[in-house]
Amino acid sequence: MALVLPKDYKPLKSNFLHLHAHSNMSVQDGMSSVELMVERAARYGQPGLALTDHGSLGGGVQLYKAAKQYGIKPILGIEAYIIDPKVDLAGLEESADADRYHLGILALDLKGYQGLVGLSTLSNTRPRYSRFPRLLVDDLLKFGREYGDHIAVTTGCVFGFVEKQLTQGGYEAALRATRVLQQMTPNLYVELQKHNIPDGFNEMPEGEVIDAMLGIADELSLPIVATADCHYLDQSHQEAHALMKRMLYGGKEDEFPGDPFHLCSAGWMKEKWSDDTWDRFEQSYTDILNKANLVIPQLEKFQVAIPEVSKTPDKVLYKECYKKLVAMGVDDDDIYVNRLDYELEVINHLKMANYFLLVLQCVQAMKDEGYTVETRGSGNGSLVLYLLGVTSVDPIVWGTDFDRFMAKDREGAPDVDIDIADSVRHFIIDYLNKLEINGIRYKTSQIGTLSQLGQAADSDTGSAFNTYISSLRQVLEREEWEKEKELAKAEDRKAVKSTADKKAKERFTANGYHTIKTLQDVKRRMPEDYEGLKQIIDMKSVYKSRGAHAGGILVSSEDVRIEDFVPQMLIASSDTMVSQYTMKDVEQLGLLKMDWLGQTSLTVMSKCMEYLGKDTTDFSWIPNDDDKTLRFVVSQKNHVGLFHLDQYSKSSAMVELKPKSTADFVIHQAYSMPGAADSGAKDIYLARRRSKTWTPDYQHPALHEVFKDTNGVMLFQEQVLGVCRAIGMIGSELTSFFKVVKDSGSGARERNLKRLAESRPRFNELAYGVGFTEKETDWVWNQILAMGGYGFNKAHAVGYGIRSYRTAYLKRHHPLEYAAALLYCWAGSNTKIRVRGKEIKKEEHYLSDIKRSGIKILPVVINKSKAAWSIDYEKQGIRRGYSSLPGVGIAVAAKIANGQPYASMEDFCERSGVSGTKPYLKDGSLIGVVKTLVEMGALDEFINN
């Protein structure tokens, strides 16, 4: 099919390529995905594309892969931010608003890329890093001494290092700045931009800047390049970009002035310049293309990089697994032996034995510290992981599938997703950061994430609406504030603000902003913003913030060191170092990804076990199919605080199910998912479960094993594997077909149904070939279609189903300890849960349920309470902890508890460290924590005596 070119395409034989382009990795500024930018450049016939996001290489992997696919050159770069050289470095931490000057830096080869990785990481980890990364001139010169021959530098846009010296200090200052940059690299290009920016917008008219920059280029015999400051793909995105800026920054107007800042054609660009100047540009484009020869071996030929835990990992893994089999007392021809031999064959074929040994080493380190570890997801289908003690799910007993976890044609390491108590996640991060194997130190990094601005369907503006309405409110408040300041005669800021807020609220309501709930409401109330907002939502590529993946951690290897290949950044809000690359990108590099997800449910269970005096790493003592527990969960009122039963829809689904075994908790995980309800699978399953007349009919004998445990309904992804095996599908064909069913996320159902339709002829061919009738084939095919994009992983369901059951067991048989553990974990937390249509703090919700159950809640007493909630076995109740009191944080609560016992009020004030020695104001009134403790009666024994 012929490629459709954009409307602004003007054919021109040229080597022009964009050297100043921002993707959506320039968070809160760029809008387009990297893949669409590469596709557009290729359609225009441009020979390459340079990506220069704000101090970030976050789109680098995507650019490299997409450019190779389209046959153009990828040039990975950044737009660096240079701190004003006049800023006092001693005050850098407080200089959040210091002037920053832009500079384009491009990697020409692998060494240049690796140097840029380090430079980008440095700039993104400076003190008080907020939205902008920071570098110093000294950083540039040091970088240039080592990497100057391997990079190219452009002088930047209107905010460039040289341009700003020109507009603020004059021609000579700009000339000196350019000479500084010449010390960085022999590949320096004077950058010119012509966006027809109106005079008065900057300190110097655009034309004068261009003339001066040309003069500098001529005086220093430097080449020149013309760039377009690209921030979005099409000219039609100009208003959406301006709207995005208003939404994010609460500004009334933040539109870029002049011509569109889009990814333009060479013809569109050439029209702005004289022929002579354009010829000089062409020479520079050709020069850069000839010099740019970046090859990243790890992206050319994928190979997962795993630390070498053992020189003979296959033998070690075999020995560890068979040691456990012997302890289990299995026979040589036992199903366990056959399954183990098969799994080891696949693991050895994929050269993954060291990965399993590394996981084992980490899990064992956790257990040695007494920390709870459980495996979720497809890893629960592995007998090897069960025998190693990584998972407590026996795949033979629970019927979980290894092929869902690993297959011989798999690329990359399998995902052993591990849950740990959220209170101890710091341990595994510290452990991996200090990881040393065979004398080699392996660095790690947490994986970065991106939060999308518009994540809603057309019927609901969702997060985009909330952000936008909030920004409108900010605009009105600021406008009214400015008006009131002008009118105010007295400097009473509180009164001025109160008046401004009242007027802003009145305007907000009068404009009807408070009534906007959907895109159609925006269309009626703010038609000028409707198209832009719709574009932002439809793009699904506009990001508002960066964050840290909840579980993902990268681990280096001998061949792929994180510091060489993965740029990192600091998430200031959580003081967390993360990769600038997202999860899919780091996987493309072959880096090992481990998933350690902190779960409060495990913290609760672990704390409960601690109260019971049991091993906090082992829940196997809890018996399955306990009759009291099964009857306990039939009542919805008992679900409060139970794992995966605390939320209304899942709670209701359990009541409908009326479980008869622990296995029903596994069924509950799958059939309570929205997809099962949407497809009708849930209703069919329940009807057949309750029916006294339904006779199992699986259409074909080969399907009996597939559907026998789910009443003839497909609830689990693994059942698709069972069907495919039943019709004779094997190898890569089986893996490819199953990948469609495993797909999930936004648009998965529609995407999967389309791809499944393409697979139907081959499916029929195989089914008919092994004797399936047309009716039988249609029946089982419709089962697969009904699953769509919502099939649940049985291995995951088993792990979480068993945990859900075990929390129910603990609450039923050890209510005091479980209740105390719940309150201990949620004390002082602002996390909320929706109860009967209202948002309520979890601690308050659980406290209400505990009181309802008849457990005594004891007050704070200065020498009896602990920092958090605790059990008072003498009173057979739960005593309130200091951290649950208003205004008393965890740190203060710990100080109080650590100082016990106290002999008097004076002793408490002197040694607790919470109020110094002056708990009273001059008028005798109490202040701070002491006041709270007195009001709660915690200090009565001192006051009454």
Strand and helix map with partners:
Elements: H1 34-43, E1 48-54, H2 60-70, E2 73-83, E3 100-107, H3 110-123, H4 137-147, E4 151-154, H5 161-169, H6 171-182, E5 188-192, H7 206-219, E6 224-226, H8 238-249, H9 266-270, H10 275-291, H11 297-300, H12 313-328, H13 335-349, H14 353-368, E7 373-376, H15 383-388, H16 395-398, E8 417-421, H17 425-433, E9 436-437, E10 440-441, E11 444-452, H18 462-487, H19 493-510, H20 519-525, H21 527-539, E12 543-555, H22 562-565, E13 568-571, E14 576-579, H23 583-588, E15 592-599, H24 600-612, H25 627-632, H26 648-657, H27 662-671, H28 674-679, H29 681-690, H30 704-707, H31 717-726, H32 731-742, H33 748-769, H34 774-787, H35 794-813, H36 815-826, E16 832-835, E17 838-841, H37 842-852, E18 856-858, E19 870-872, E20 877-879, H38 890-898, H39 905-911, H40 928-935, H41 940-943
Parallel strand pairs: 1-2, 4-5, 5-6, 8-15, 18-20
Antiparallel strand pairs: 2-3, 3-4, 7-8, 9-10, 11-12, 12-15, 13-14, 16-17, 19-20
Helix pairs in contact: 1-2, 3-4, 5-6, 8-18, 8-21, 12-13, 12-14, 18-19, 20-21, 24-36, 26-27, 27-35, 31-32, 33-34, 35-36, 36-37
